[in-house]
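Quick entry between incubations.
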Amino acid sequence: MYVAVKGGERAIANAHALLDHSRRGDHAVPEIAPKQIREQLALAVDRVMAEGSLYDRDLAALAIKQARGDLIEAIFLVRAFRTTLPRFGHGEPADTAAMQIRRRISATYKDLPGGQVLGPTFDYTHRLIDFALAAGAPVAEPAEAGEGEPADTPHVTALLDGEGLIERNPPQPSGRPVGDLTREPLAFPADRDLRLQNLARADEGFLLAMGYSTQRGYGRTHPFVGEIRFGEIEVEFVPEDLGFAVPLGRIQVTECEMVTQFKGTAETSPQFTRGYGLVFGQSERKAMSMALVDRALRAREFGEDVVAPAQDEEFVLSHSDNVQATGFVEHLKLPHYVDFQAELGLIRQLRREHADRAAAAGFTREAAE
Amino acid sequence: MNAPTLTGYNFAYLDEQTKRMIRRAILKAIAIPGYQVPFASREMPMPYGWGTGGVQVTASVIGPQDVLKVIDQGSDDTTNAVSIRAFFARTAGVATTTATADATIIQTRHRIPEAPLTDGQILVYQVPIPEPLRFLEPRETETRTMHALEEYGLMHVKLYEDIARHGHIATTYAYPVRVAGRYLMDPSPTPKFDNPKMHMSPALQLFGAGREKRIYAVPPYTRVVSLDFEDHPFEVNRFDKPCALCGAHGVYLDEVVLDDRGGRMFVCSDTDHCGTRQEQGHRGDLSTPREGSAA
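Done. Structure below.
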């Protein structure tokens, strides 16, 4: 009898048909539409856009539906689509100081120009399951802001910078365009532009754990949340034949600026340093984690000892991408029987030789007795 | 299978600019045998670790006249081989085959076909970890320096320690080789049984590692030597019995568990080789009248 160890095209097609069927679930329950996901699972959509590296709410919502709610699978779908898109160039540096603010908080000042704007947040909610939500309770209208000119909302770090208390943001390195790890393979040591790009695409859970580890002493940076802001910014692009910037549209982003451990030398007086996080959509957890890890990864630049995982550029950047990670972890379920056969052959031989040696040793011991 | 090619995508999925970038990397790899060339690996519609490097290499070298064979574990019929073959049938509309001799491009995972390859054929390997020194030194910055300085003593120490501990070199697959007397190279996780087939092969051997963003190559008729010691020469895996279906000796066999009482049979890992031999009338111990095509 020959045991079939074959996949077979029909078996694969059947498995995929069953997947489609399972995705639909109970037909007595109405099918979910991508626009419902887009509107009502907006934070899942945000995460898929951020880690999928593509700002398209409808596409992310569709990917979430196709992936049955598995966000890493949805991110993978978006990435695989993104890779086929033509690239016209890169946008102009976005001005986040001109953000239309939906939320903006600072942990370093009680009040400041632009004010503390709480916006839509889970903070201060009691995490009690709201059983009324199951029945679809009507939602109260939100409070409106008073009339008047929208206030200017300068960055907290700009206020500190005015006093020279914080390091200046380094200017864009001249002579080379900003790096793009989706077009050029990542090489080490990596500059900060590439590190930040890597972190912006990185798995939220991975960054969270890495950032957390710095708070627990593995590469401590004494961070303060200078500011978190979430809202809409304008994206601009300079087409080559026009020669001036044209707006492409508005996107929602979350930005976090950490004010971290100060540095000084005999020549320069001490200054706070910066950690930076920027994420598509609303995700403070990710933006804050990114800012912590960004600062930890600047250890080399500040002459700090690289002793913790979060400071180790090769470790962090090589393992942060969940599409890469999930692919390689899950590839272990592919057949490996050719290699396993080779290992079986060796271990059987080693055990046989071990048994022979043991038998020979036993024989000499008996002979001696 | 004459499925129409996928609309909305370029021939063989990748856009021409990407293919040009990958071909440049391939040319460099051929010029420096065994050297790992970094390339801007793209996201592919299959997961990392499932052959994205091999697929990108194949997509960059394939043309409409090519005939493609895809194997995994030596078999054309394993799930991932079926999936990748279907991908190219769909995105490039190329002819596919299971016959080693008929193929112009063979993409493989974990095996080299038993039938000798010939001039003009391209063997594309899917590579998970391209760096042979990776498990001795996890840092890329270090291993690149070691390659630059041709500093491979660490690998010899590892093999020596195997002998000291087990009496044998305990590496049975992904067994390190020296290419053209210079670069230390990982042959991908093929069993060491296949290593000698790489030496002076008339075929062009290309290696693609998508997740790790590396391409390397062994040009035709290049020396590929498995590392060993004078008193512990390199040996291939050996099997006590011939294939139970076609009676072949000197081929790599898969162990198939027949029952829960220790029953085993050993059959060719290379299904095309085994099938061809059976058609030629070769029989093994457990040959039965051939069943209808099981799918």
